[in-house]
Give the backbone structure.
Amino acid sequence: MSAALTIRSRGADPDGLDFEALQRTGTAMLQALCGQRWTDYNAHDPGVTMLDQLSYALTELAYRSAFRHEDYLAGRDGTIDLERHALHLPQDIFPSEPVTADDWRRLLYDRIAEIEDVWVTQAGSADGLIDIAFKLGDPPTGVRAEPTAAQAAGVARRIRVQAGAARALCEDIGRIAVLETEDFYLTGDIEVHSLRDPAAIYADIFFQCAHHLISGLQFDSYEHAAADGVPPDELFSGPFTTHGHITESAQRAPDAGISLPRLIGLIRGIDGVRQVHMLDLCDAEGKSARLDGAGGKRLVPRLCFPGNERQKRMLRVHFMGQTAAPDNDDESDADAVSALISRARINLNKLQFEARALRQRHASLEHLGEVPAGAGQPLAPYYSIQHQFPAIYGINAYGVPASAPPEAHAHARQLKAYLYVFEQVMANYLQNLAGIASVFSIDTDLTQSYFSQSLNNAMLPDIEALYTREPDQMAQELDDIRRRLDPFEDRRERVIDVMLAMYGECYTQQALRKFNVYFPVRQAMHAWLLENKLAFLTRIVVLLRQRAAGFRYDLPAWDSDNVSGAQRKIAILLGLHEHHCCRSLCEPMRRAGLRIVPDAHIGEGALSGVFRHVRAARPGATMNVAATLMRKAFAPGRLEIGRTSEGRAAVRFKVKSAPLTYWHLGELASGEGAAELKELSETLRSLNMRCEGFHLVEHTLLRPRRSDSVQCPATDEGFFPFRVSVVLPNWTARFHDPEFQKFAQDTVSLNLPAHILPTFYWLGYVQMDDFESRFRNWLDKLRHATLSGHDAAEQDGGADKALDDASSYLISFLLRQQQRDVHSHWV
């Protein structure tokens, strides 16, 4: 295994806290710069005195720069706002939705306490379905009631709910079956010592062997697992289990053979067991049982506790050279065996109760790891070096004596002003240390990456008397200088890149700059890109946890944020402005009372009412609007105020520059002008942005559910498994651009799971409206069929038939659109 590539961290400045080293470095620089004019570097020289004070001040800056990382992020009370700084606890950032069979096994074992083991396999049809088989837990020892068919069906419905909520993209739940059991009994000779009650040993042997035969799954507290050295990424690998960390042995098939040597090794490790002389498994009549799992029936082994007298004598426990379960029929020995079994049953019930309680107890993560805290010490306060100058200089808090000549006062003020430049730099440095918490945050109102603070009399004695403006004005001018030299957008983006890199992610969509059609002003474009990056960082937990997850079809999906993890991430990467939900892309146009039609269908004068119609925004009346007008009207210079033939002011749209062509959009009333023109432009720009988005259709969910449903349209063999249809609008300014369409297709393909093949549909307004009505109807039928399947009283198949009809209706649309310029996309 190759070593990981790393960058060596930069060590602390070795001279930062060394006053003498700073002094030597400063003296060497002075000699290099002015050695021809200045030769006296002894302590009495005023220049050396100033160098000493500046060197001493630098050690304070170095000291404050060497605090722990937590100190720069903490508030005054020492606590760190983890959410503000996009910092997440291990139990939040590491878990994911189930991907492997082991993930599914642990998830279902944790969520449903009634099952003792579960097996998850790919369905034989290889169309993205998974089959789930489970074994119900046995009742407490001594209780003869077996689980009923109704109980098994109830557990199966709960499994379908849990599995459907955690399914992956292009994956669905197939058959769920409860497995029958085959009873086994332990037989053999086991020697125990006298330091533990034989009944407790007997119960422990039975409990551990019974558990090993089935699941081999065992709960442990997260604290114990962490104390045993399990690292956080392994501790929370896969789905988060709410009842504790699950340890597991290698999963065996439900009908696989049973290894006696492994059982013997397990028993030898039990406290109190000295030796296993013989061990076997038998049936209720004492006959040796078949152990190779080749019986032809898929039966799960179940270890039964002795019931009748024959069964009580099968497992013999030797204590102090005597046998607790002899073969003779002596009445006293029989009573001893019955007493042992009775006491063992009590101990076994206690072990089983503790195991059930552990499965139902919610794990506590309170003491798993301490949340970092800072010292809460202020970082920005500045204490002037002038306080420490000898009093003869006259620049400390006492100043120059009133009796001193005017020249002495002038010299002190001159020196104070000279030192001000150095002190302002150092004060700003400390303010930047205090600003680290803001820079490394997800604050949306942050507008600066450098910080400054104005020096006042409390920091620097009598400095305000030297200001040529009021202190507030000086602070404003200082901030203006900082703003001109602050590359905020560049530094902010690089900081967010670092914060994303903590989670192994990067925002690579710099190509979005090329498709900036909505923000002609540079600052607005940078704000848009920063907004996208911040949206990615803010939602990092959900994006990582659900990166392969599908949407939940048992919950409402339309007009909600119930979308797949891939769709959520892709929407952010494409810079969509409404990226949080599944919604109609035609609805913004309907609300505006507009219908997009091709330019060729627009007759002369047909657009003369657009200006009034758009400003009125009456959804009751619908007006046709040309596609070019919709996409281009908000671009600079395309809307103008012109004159009609009668000389009245009117709004017009420049269609072409050569030959110069205009479309008349409506007349202006008295007093209307540039403001109304800007309002029309902004409305059309907003409409374009709100119409952008895409729909993701999982073909696996379109599969027929009933054989007697409406005939499904003819599809090729690979239509259903691991395929998605990505449906996008082509009438907005960005989405109509062929280069952006290619960029969007590449982004979708790169961020879908590698085994999923997308097919892209770029639809016009009319086709999209048709698709969305079919898609919404199908989502409703899918949810209804799912909920009907969960309700035993409604399992009549009618909901499945309605779902098949809606699926067929949607498939026929997709197949019809495939005849056009639609293609699949592999990366």
Summary: Residues 331-360 form the longest helix (30 residues). The longest strand covers residues 180-192. Residues 14-66 form one domain. The CA atoms of residues 143 and 486 lie 76 Å apart.
